[in-house]
């Protein structure tokens, strides 16, 4: 006989929620378009999230605007500022514009 509760959990032990990541579910589907755009981007890029940062940002902004998560500065969520979302590193490991763009004055 098992001492655990249903599904093998311990009875009487209260789970402790994580500090981050707990926010209301989008029951009214207010941010479905942003979520679908982000997921479609992930699928089309072979799940390379760095290539879908603009969609991730839009989704987070949607959730904050609709009080589905706490409002936070985007820099605290990994975004540098409102118009910069591309953080794809160059081959040498530094952040920048990428090797395919011509440099000014060259």
TrEMBL record:
Keywords: Disulfide bond. The keyword Transcription regulation does not apply. Residues 74-106 are annotated as: Disordered. It holds the Pfam family CHCH. Residues 31-65 form the CHCH domain. This is CHCH domain-containing protein. The lineage of its organism: Eukaryota, Viridiplantae, Streptophyta, Embryophyta, Tracheophyta.
């Amino acid at each position: 006989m098992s001492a655990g509760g249903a599904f093998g959990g311990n009875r009487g032990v209260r789970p402790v929620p994580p500090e981050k990541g707990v926010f209301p579910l989008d029951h009214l589907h207010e941010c479905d378009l942003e979520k679908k755009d982000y997921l479609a981007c992930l699928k089309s890029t072979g799940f390379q999230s760095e290539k879908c940062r603009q969609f991730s940002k839009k989704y987070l902004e949607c959730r904050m605007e609709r009080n589905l998560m706490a409002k936070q500065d985007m820099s605290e969520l990994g975004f540098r500022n409102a118009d910069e979302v591309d953080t794809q590193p160059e081959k040498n490991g530094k952040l920048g514009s990428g090797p395919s763009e011509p440099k000014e004055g060259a």
